[in-house]
Amino acid sequence: MANLRLASLLLLVILLGPSRAQTPEHRLPTNIRPSHYRLHLNLTADVFSEASNQYSGMVIILLTPQQTTSTISLHASHEFLNITLVTLSNTDISPSAYSVNSVTDILTINLPGQIIANVMYQLIIEFTGLLSTAEMTGFYKSNYVDESGATTYLATTQFQPTSARRAFPCFDEPFFKATFDIYITYPLGMNALSNTPGSLFTSDSVSETMKFNTTALMSTYLLAFVVSNFTCTEGTPIEGLPYRICSREETSDIRDWALEIGPKLLDSLNIFTDFNYSLSKDKLDQVAIPDFAAGAMENWGLVTYREMYLLWDPLHSSNSFKQFIATIISHEFAHFWFGNLVTCNWWSETFLNEGFANYYQYHTTHDVLPEWELDKQYVVSNLQPVLITDALENALPLQNEGAATPTEVLAMFGTISYNKGGSIFRMVEHAMTPLLFRTGLRNYMRLQYQTVLPDNLWSTLNAVINNSTTQLPAANLSQVMETWVRSPGFPLLTVSSTSTSSQTTIRISQERFLLSGSDTETKWYVPITYSTSLDSNPFTNTTPQAWLTPDSDLTITIPSGDVSWIVLNNQHIGYYRVTYSTALWNSISQALHAQNFSGIIDVNRAQIVDDLFNLARVNKVAYLTVFNIIHYLENDTSYFPWVPAINGFNFLLARVGRSSTLGSAIGDHVLDLMDNLYESVSFTHHDEDDQIYTTKQVLALSTACRLGHERCLIASKVLFHVYKSSGLRPNKNLRSIVYCNGLRHSTDQSDWEFLWSEYLNASLATEQSTILTALGCSQDEQMLERYLNLSVTDNSGIRAQDALSVFASVYNGNPVGVDVAFRFLRQNHQLIVEKYLSMNALPNLINGLAGVFTTKEQIEELQEFIETGGLPEEYLPAANTALEAALANLQWLETFEGHLHNYFSAGTRTGVGLVLAFFAIVVARLFIK
């Protein structure tokens, strides 16, 4: 499943902490194994209207006891399914009773006698079910307004991780793989899709039944079906494999990018894994769903997406969406091998599915489109953000054997499993060498149609290492990876050096990096790479030059006393941070300030900047040192170092408040520092074939405008009002900047009304997303309150999947939005819970708001709300953790505010004189129709 779901799951990942004692009652016993399902679903015409949400079904499950037993246990949702009949064939034993546990959703069937081990039986269950309308999980109902203005309904699925049981009785754990025959009856005039090709089975005057070919052996969470009025466009077959994009008819003209890029990505993965997708499946449909909580879902043969993550309009969708669609498709395709073919045994090992998909969404897309530099983007967009999450004292480990309840399982679908998992696999790849890693993964594919544990992967890779010259610092790869997988966190390496006339001695030690608290016990096997001023080709070697082990520090001797600088972690392949002695930091600073940054490459400059800001955050390095070193950025116009630089300054601004005197001084400093970066891009120069330029353009202009750069704001306001008055839209890549700043600096409510109207009239999901984020940029409290009310109002035009984005846009858009959003949350928390239960909305909103609180008064109000606001009991732990984080932020401010005041001038930046000729910019260069 794509990591777009991460935003709504992040809080859970942070809160649940290390493994606790497992609660096995949520898990099924393994004494009975299903091998095949025959599932019949009947959806009448009433389902595709407001009249009814009920359907009927029957499932026949072939199962075999592994030992003699008198009970059968499987899953069936007590909330969405009503069991009407249970029978068992191949035996005279009839089920005497059955019941569904309302907590675990385990259906227990009691038998008056024993069923015999190793004998196959047919379990037949008839049931009625309800399509969910409040949650986008299980078997649920969605709708959209078509071109004629009519509301059209569809039924679709989202089963991962534990929601197949909401659609039909089944053994709903990844371990229980089986094959499936699906029969779906639906009204004439509609169509049905499932994992495999279908053919008409029966029909009458009002309905028809589609029978789908038997699936490959797979877990229940990968089963999917969509019943709709969608149309499909068939692309070029992939080695004879039918390949289609399906969506609402009115979006048929924006399917081309997915049609073009998909086969290229699949071909790259076919070659890399040496296991052709067509060997396991016989078609590949990708479907855009109007209401979809997850970003995308890797259902085998029927991949489902949010519309804006599959459909790209070359005239109106930004380059960032184009890249995002390519990488999300790549993520889902990677799952065909890592997750679908070879599956994690249980969700405690989710990283075996999601970590690989996370890494290969970048790796594979980079193979197809190397000019996008996704190998470098991986560092600043994926690795560096998860180092923040993983530095929390209660971070989850990659393998959390205590995950059993639905809440614990859901927590495994967060940045640790995705981003850390991918980053760890990237590190292992280079520790082994990419060639050996690929060979090992090809052998891993021989475990096809099985479920696996981490040791299955490590032993497969270890076998390849044993047949090579690669040396490990321990007996086997499993031992090397033990701490990385079973313990939370990552190491901070401390580097010092001494020199003589003939040699330089480098000493490296390790400790766990934590944002708070301490852990001196956890140690890792750490692959070490480094570059020095003596290297003719620095930063190219990513194979370990040495290993730091858990039981001792490391000493490296360089046979020269003339080393002017050393930087560890070439290309930021290693999953760790690095700090240096004062002398070494000074040498790095001198190197960065020298011509061509002394050969220190952009991705390692990004690593240095990111490490510095986070080391200062925990007082490992003085902020004065950070600002002195990163002052070199005034001469650096590369995109990659500026991402962590802006993130680092954003952290400071979030703590001190952007509108405070200190915040203004910091903002002015950033604007001075980024003068050359700003001048390297333009509102008028667009190069849509240069992905990195466009990405840098958006980063630079959005930051400059947010911090009050005068020319940037003038340009944004001019572009916005030309759009409002003439309908000429800004360039598609700059719309988020223009829309947001057009409202942020407007006192005219009609500007907000205009953009809201544009949202309601937009049919393109990417444009809707851009506008929704911009609407929260307004500083008008009345409009922001109205906006939040619309997000919880039925039929307002805001889809449930976008509600959390609305709230985030308000409290992130402006300081005034923080108080507006918090007040709305206090007054409407019960309504929020009711409407967005499946999205874990309330804890996420509290956590998001607490992260932007800057005053003691806000934190006291949060504490009062938690104590007296009537929060549901299950949300109190999350709320209290958010409160603790807010208090920690306040304590950080008390510790460092004086240091920041000492560095930054409180003066106001004087803008560059405005040139009247600016207003005469040729409109054709500014806008597209």
Automatic annotation (TrEMBL):
InterPro entries: Aminopeptidase_N-like_N, Aminopeptidase_N-like_N_sf, ERAP1-like_C_dom, M1_APN-typ, Peptidase_M1, Peptidase_M1_aminopeptidases, Peptidase_M1_dom, Peptidase_M4/M1_CTD_sf. Residues 565-885 form the ERAP1-like C-terminal domain. It catalyses: Release of an N-terminal amino acid, Xaa-|-Yaa- from a peptide, amide or arylamide. Xaa is preferably Ala, but may be most amino acids including Pro (slow action). When a terminal hydrophobic residue is followed by a prolyl residue, the two may be released as an intact Xaa-Pro dipeptide. Residues 257-484 form the Peptidase M1 membrane alanine aminopeptidase domain. Zn(2+) binds at H331, H335, E354. This is Aminopeptidase. Its cofactor is Zn(2+). SUPFAM superfamilies: Leukotriene A4 hydrolase N-terminal domain, Metalloproteases ('zincins'), catalytic domain.
